[in-house]
Amino acid sequence: MSPSRLIAATIGLASCVIPVNIGDGIEVSGTSAGLADRDGDGFSFKQGDCDDFDSQVGPGFPEECDGLDNDCDGTIDIRYPADVHACARTDVFVQRLLLDVLFVVDASAAMAPHHDRIIEGAEAFLPELVGPDLETHLGVLTMDMHNPQHQGRLVRVMGANGVELWLDGSQTTLDGATQWVTRAIDELDVLLWGEEGGRAVVEAALFQHADGDNAGFLRAEARLAVIFISNEEDPTLQPLRKDFLDSLTALKTSLAEVQLHTITQLTDFNCAGVLSPSTRGLSYDLMASATQGHTQDICAPTYTQFMTTIGQDSADFSLQSQQFDLSRPAQGASSMSVRLEFPGGTEQPLVDEFSLKPGNVNLVIDLVPPPPAGTIITVDYLQAIDGETPPDPQ
Predict the structure, then answer these.
(1) Which of 9, 293, 307, 324 has the smallest number of Cβ neighbours within 10 A?
(2) If DSSP codes are grouped into helix, strand and coil, which group holds residue 278?
């Protein structure tokens, strides 16, 4: 071998000088090949590093969800010895019911004959909305904008813990809630004269007094149901109906988070059968229509069936979601299993009743009605590999 073709090469240790023959290629002596730790992870090829150009790969390294054989055991994303997939995740959700309810009652003297029907209707409204896991706030407003004690302030009710402005449905029973609403209706002052208005008191309650006299009632994450009860058209001058709906949209980010229901005069005839188009509750009914709410004629002999319907509808409407946000993007619906555990302990696996939205983070439960409050939703899935865009939902 020509001396001119001998060079000194340092491989691995700086003090280890080994002859290298440079001919058609580089030939390193068998005793030194693979000693260099090229990626600085503490292991060379000879020491078991199956990819000495990636510092995330080496013998005994923790297996990550990255599409690599991190621990050099010959399998990708599988953790030895338990054979657990490194991308396997379990997310658990609890279905919640979150609803703030306002009964907004006309306190004029002409409404007194309707109070018993209102109380009877409230009892029919409540069964789906009070009890454990049912996070409902119940409040009552008078439409009185004349008395400074009212003007959008929640009616004060003497409860078990003293004066209460609103009732927490999760901390009471059906009987307790019915008694509370009955006392609230009974304690409404009769408005003999002065300014009143449905939109005006609700706007004052939800904005002007939200952090003061009514503090704690309104929750940002809860949906809102308002039940207007009056035998005349809303005399509110400000806000206008459109401005009122715009305010509710801004309050809840979307009008879909709000339902307005009405018990008003639905025809041009009042309850005495007299032609009275001026007392028809047209603006109330238009607001109900704009929010997918329900309407009932105030002259009906009973409100029980109507209130039962809106109680059930409000319970479904106020469930936190049929959509649940996974902690990580999933590889696809085909890699998922979803099971429900209902409040009574019954379990139900889902097969075709769930789907993923684009991005594979938003899981949609396609059940009608949605799972009831208190349902535990367990989702097992393979997360998308780190750094990669998840595929379209499958």
Answers:
(1) 9
(2) helix
Which is nearest to 126 in space by CA: 180, 188, 201, 183?
A: 180
Are 118 and 125 a contacting pair, CB within 8 Å? Answer: no
E strand or H helix at 105:
strand 97-105
* Sheet of strand 362-365, all strands in order from the earlier edge strand to the far edge: 323-325, 362-365, 354-356
Q: What is the mean pLDDT of residues 36-56?
A: 87
Q: C-alpha distances in angstroms, 204 versus 145, 211, 239, 249, 274?
A: 10, 11, 10, 16, 34
Residues 6+ apart with CB under 8 A from 386: 64, 65, 66
pTM across the whole model: 0.73
Can you give the pLDDT at residue 19? 41
Q: How many CB atoms within 10 Å of residue 38?
A: 14
Comparing C-alpha atoms, which of 232, 274, 231, 223 is closest to residue 251? 223
Strand partners, 370: none
242-288 confidence digits (pLDDT tens)? 999 999 999 998 999 999 999 999 999 999 999 999 999 999 999 99
Q: CA angle at residue 6 from 3 to 7, to 5 degrees?
A: 135
The rounded Cα 362 to chain-centroid distance in angstroms is: 12
The helix, strand and coil proportions of the chain, stated in percent and rounded to the nearest 5, come to: 25, 25, 50
Between 103 and 110, where is the model more confident? Answer: 103
**Tokens in use for 175?**
């009987």
Q: What interhelical angle do 174-186 and 115-125 show, nearest 10?
A: 160
What is the Cα–Cα distance from 365 to 375, expressed in whole angstroms? 12
Of 340, 344, 374, nearest in space to 354 by CA: 340
pLDDT of 226-235, one tens digit each? 999 999 999 9
Residue 352's closest CA among 362, 341, 338, 371?
338
Name, in order, each residue with C-beta under 8 angstroms of 205's C-beta and a sequence gap of 6 or more.
102, 139, 141, 152, 153, 154, 214, 217
Residue predicted with more confidence, 182 or 393: 182
DSSP for residue 179: H
